[in-house]
């Protein structure tokens, strides 16, 4: 998901005065809102089986959310970088094509995208790849039937898989843009795992203070793709919002209607994500046998890839769009927008070169 315009670092307790509420505040919150079908199911589950972990809550919410809607665009809940400008996907396509060429142009290379949204990024990237002489098979890892339909319209001929381990045994040019942030996290308070309970007839967290997070699901996903790339050749570019170094603190957040919302409100009807720990990503990929680049910021990376030159080219071709193109470039690169918060790391086979743009 893309971070809304509001300050992404503010505590969730500041969101509408209702963030990570405990049982003592559950009554007021539950009187003020509608109960979703998923919340009813979660309440019944908790009453029957006991409190559930934050990890289980986040997994259930996002499974339901993505299976039932297209969350992107003005009518959805958030906008991602590919929807902001074609420049984003074009530069990624050029970067992957260049990496493939420097690796000796191995036959059978496949373009893989994890969580490809509407397919906008893939369409832009593939257009650039084909201009560079690379016309790869396209494989999407996507489980949402709603988004699969949109992807089929954008990228005819794509093949779909439910997981990374179903991908072909060929060199992979893989992209994970805003994929890892939606994988569930575990939360702990003073060493005790935080859970979701029923209180006051609604959902609440059982503890509020000194929260730390980790994500075994992310570590496993990164290790799996790193092993595949190490075994079959290729490179992966991972782009997401988060920390360059591991840090304590709570980052779980909800977005609905292009604004932050309380995490426990409207389960299944808002996007739940947490900041990605890129130091943990690097550790997991290295332990799986892959080579890993340093972490860089999205803004710096896109500038190294030539976004300013591409913006000038687009402006020269369409002068009437000059302000739109400049605004898109700034949103992607400006430190006050997505440029600093979003990080980029590349994972590649030891015998492949690192993708361009990393120091």
TrEMBL record:
InterPro entries, sorted: NDUFAF7, NDUFAF7_sf, SAM-dependent_MTases_sf
A single MF term (Gene Ontology): protein-arginine omega-N symmetric methyltransferase activity
SUPFAM superfamilies: S-adenosyl-L-methionine-dependent methyltransferases
Ranges of Basic and acidic residues composition bias in the record: 24-35
Keywords: Methyltransferase, Transferase
UniProt KW Lipid biosynthesis keyword: no
GO terms (BP aspect): methylation
Region (Disordered): 1-35
PANTHER family in alphabetical order: PROTEIN ARGININE METHYLTRANSFERASE NDUFAF7, MITOCHONDRIAL
Protein name: SAM-dependent methyltransferase
Species annotation: Sphingomonas sabuli
């Amino acid at each position: 998901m893309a971070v809304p315009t509001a300050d992404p670092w503010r505590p969730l307790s500041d969101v509408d005065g209702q963030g990570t509420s405990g049982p003592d505040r559950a009554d007021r919150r539950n009187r003020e809102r509608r109960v979703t079908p998923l919340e009813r199911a979660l309440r019944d589950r908790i009453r029957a089986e006991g409190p559930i972990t934050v990890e289980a809550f986040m997994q259930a919410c996002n499974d339901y959310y993505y299976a039932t809607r297209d969350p992107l665009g003005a009518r959805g809940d958030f906008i991602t970088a590919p929807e902001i400008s074609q420049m984003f996907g074009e530069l990624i396509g050029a970067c992957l094509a260049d990496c493939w060429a420097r690796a000796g142009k191995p036959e059978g290379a496949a373009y893989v995208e994890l969580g490809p949204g509407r397919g906008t990024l893939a369409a832009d990237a593939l257009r650039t790849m084909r201009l560079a002489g690379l016309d790869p098979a396209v494989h999407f890892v996507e489980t949402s039937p709603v988004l699969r339909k949109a992807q089929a319209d954008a990228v005819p001929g794509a093949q779909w898989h439910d997981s990374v381990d179903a991908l072909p045994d060929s060199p992979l040019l893989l992209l994970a843009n805003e994929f890892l942030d939606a994988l569930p996290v575990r939360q702990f308070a003073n060493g005790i795992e935080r859970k979701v309970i029923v209180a006051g007839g609604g959902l609440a967290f059982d503890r509020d203070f000194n929260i730390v997070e980790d994500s075994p699901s992310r570590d496993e996903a990164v290790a799996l793709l790193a092993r595949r790339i190490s075994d079959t050749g290729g490179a992966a570019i991972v782009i997401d919002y988060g920390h360059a170094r591991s840090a304590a603190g709570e980052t779980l957040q909800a977005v609905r209607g292009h604004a932050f919302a309380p995490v426990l409100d409207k389960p299944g009807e808002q996007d739940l994500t947490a900041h990605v720990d890129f130091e943990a990503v690097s550790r997991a990929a290295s332990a799986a046998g892959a080579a890993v680049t340093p972490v860089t910021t999205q803004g710096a990376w896109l500038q190294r890839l030539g976004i300013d030159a591409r913006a000038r080219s687009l402006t020269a071709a369409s002068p009437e769009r000059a302000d739109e193109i400049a605004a898109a470039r700034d949103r992607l690169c400006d430190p006050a927008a997505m440029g600093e918060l979003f990080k980029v790391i590349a994972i590649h086979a030891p015998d492949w070169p690192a993708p361009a743009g990393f120091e």
